[in-house]
Write a structure and sequence with these properties.
Shape: globular
Mean pLDDT: 96
Low-confidence stretches: 1-10
Largest sheet: 2 strands, antiparallel
Structural class: mainly alpha
Number of domains: 4
Order of helices and strands: HHHHHHHHHHHHEEHHHHHHHHHHHHH
Number of helices: 25
Helix content: 55-70%
Radius of gyration: 25 Å
Strand order of the largest sheet: 1-2
Length: about 500
């Protein structure tokens, strides 16, 4: 069975041959701003220059441990007043529910700016234990779904899988609510194996799905319409089932126990591969499987499916910090939008976040509403002729808004912070380009082009005699032009 898993995982060959040994800075491989940027682009939604400078004062190992330790004790987003409502609590369901869904999406959107690694990981899991908001569109279930994602993001994957299977949102989305002794529904059982744990066609049969569906019956009761869904003995199939050759009068808890006992190696391989492709590189080949995926899978198994030890080893490794791991993942729409705002430190508010979420949806990433149960396929699927120009146009609109609202001088503030108020246009252009891209541009001509754009129509003699500075009245628009050029550079779309 392991050979089948390995063949299924093979994609583009990887160039990253670094190991899982802890990265220790050296003269030839220093702890520098590029590595800190890499951390923030992958484990957060980028960072400000001040964040990067603070991180450099720590060691990489201590810094990664600090990120994970802080996330382990970080509180979930605060529950709204309507979190546990049922239909009876609404006075005007359609109006209030629409308002509550909108408000909670906005809370989550703002959380992408402030929640750090916990927010990034919860968003990753939302594309694993997938539900589609449009299919249920009910505010209390939306809250409970995201709250469970946050609660279990760094915890035990077995417990996580158990919790998501009886989450009311999931029960409604994948028809568990309809699964009874007299009318079994196999939808969730199939996705439990195919998408959430084992991988498509990998280690289970149609009989396993059928028998598992019978064991999952009974979660179709609510005290009042629209309340959280609970277990009902009267609709549970109490008969004998055979799952992975284990025979008994199994229920839901038994399914999870049998699954992880009998198929733990396959589960670990599937989950570690998914984490690797999201946080390190979409390229997985036989060497990566043998040297990275397999050892990390064993760490997950050895720690009884606790996620934190795996994340610590991966994120502190030479492999994660290797230069060949940088700039190999295409940003999602939300990476582009949230990342640019965080990197610049430019003004945003609820109205802007609302607009960002709307435009992210137009570019293919409707928050918590992927296209189907398999989720967004990410990476190259984010980019086509329409969505690429859409990214440029959205950031153009954002800069236009900031200019119209009088925030254009923050453009100059950013240039001053990044360049220590330099008066050298070539240095300013290069420094700002390098700040926004994960790796240096390919040729000097690329930097020269950026410099020409930044110089704008200021006569050359003012640069030659060093009378020009970022205090000039032309400087805000010069930075504006440079920023618009930067987010059209192909490398800007990478992280």
């Amino acid at each position: 069975m392991q050979n089948k898993i390995d063949m299924d995982l093979l994609t583009t060959p990887s160039c990253n041959t670094a190991t899982l040994d802890v990265y220790v800075p050296s003269a030839g491989n220093p702890w520098n701003i590029d590595k800190v940027k890499h951390i923030y682009k992958r484990l957060n939604f980028s960072a400000t220059q001040a964040d990067l400078d603070d991180a450099l004062s720590s060691s990489p190992e201590v810094f990664i441990d600090g990120l994970i330790d802080a996330s382990l004790v970080q509180e979930n987003l605060p529950a709204p007043l309507w979190a546990n409502w049922s239909f009876d609590d609404y006075s005007d369901f359609e109006t209030q529910n629409n308002e509550f869904v909108f408000d909670w999406r906005l809370v989550i959107g703002n959380g992408l700016y402030t929640e750090g690694l916990k927010g990034r990981l919860a968003f990753f899991w939302s594309n694993h234990f997938v539900t589609e908001l449009d299919s249920y569109f009910y505010a209390p279930y939306l809250f409970k779904y995201y709250d469970d994602l946050q609660t279990h993001s760094f915890g035990n994957f077995k417990d996580f899988t158990h919790a998501m299977g009886i989450n009311s949102t999931m029960l409604l989305y994948l028809n568990g609510f309809e699964n009874t002794e007299n009318s079994p529904n196999e939808n969730y059982a199939r996705e439990l194996y195919e998408l959430f744990t084992l991988g498509e066609g990998n280690g289970y049969t149609q009989s396993d799905i059928t028998e598992t569906a019978r064991a999952l019956t009974g979660y179709n009761h609510w005290e009042t319409v629209g309340a959280q869904i609970t277990f009902d003995d009267s609709t549970h199939d109490t008969g004998i089932k055979t799952i992975f050759d284990q025979e008994g009068a199994w229920g839901y808890d038994d399914v999870i126990n049998i699954l992880f006992e009998q198929r733990g190696e396959q589960i670990a391989t599937t989950i570690i591969t998914k984490l690797y492709q999201f946080f390190v590189s979409p390229a997985v080949d036989a060497v990566i499987i043998e040297n990275i995926i397999a050892p990390l899978s064993q760490v997950l198994i050895d720690n009884n499916f606790e996620m934190a030890p795996v994340l610590r080893q991966l994120f502190k490794s030479e492999h994660f910090f290797d230069e060949r791991a940088r700039g190999v993942i295409i940003k999602s729409p939300l990476d582009v939008i949230v990342g640019f705002t965080r990197e610049t430190g430019f003004f945003y508010n609820d109205q802007i976040v609302e607009a960002f979420l709307y435009y992210a949806g137009l570019m293919g990433q409707e928050i918590l509403d992927p296209p189907d149960v398999s989720g967004w396929q990410r990476d190259e699927t984010w980019i086509n002729a329409s969505t690429l120009t859409g990214r440029w146009q959205l950031l153009d609109l954002y800069l236009n808004y900031l200019m119209g609202e009088g925030y254009i001088f923050s453009f100059v503030d950013l240039a001053r912070e990044l360049t220590n108020d330099s008066i050298d246009p070539a240095f300013i252009a290069r420094t700002m380009v390098d700040y926004f891209v994960p790796r240096n541009l390919h040729t000097e001509m690329d930097y020269e082009t950026a410099t020409v754009i930044f110089k704008a129509d200021v006569p050359q003699n003012y640069y030659d005699d060093m009378t020009w500075s970022l205090s000039w009245s032309s400087a805000p628009n010069q930075v504006n032009l440079l920023l618009r050029h930067i987010f059209r550079i192909p490398e800007f779309q990478l992280k």
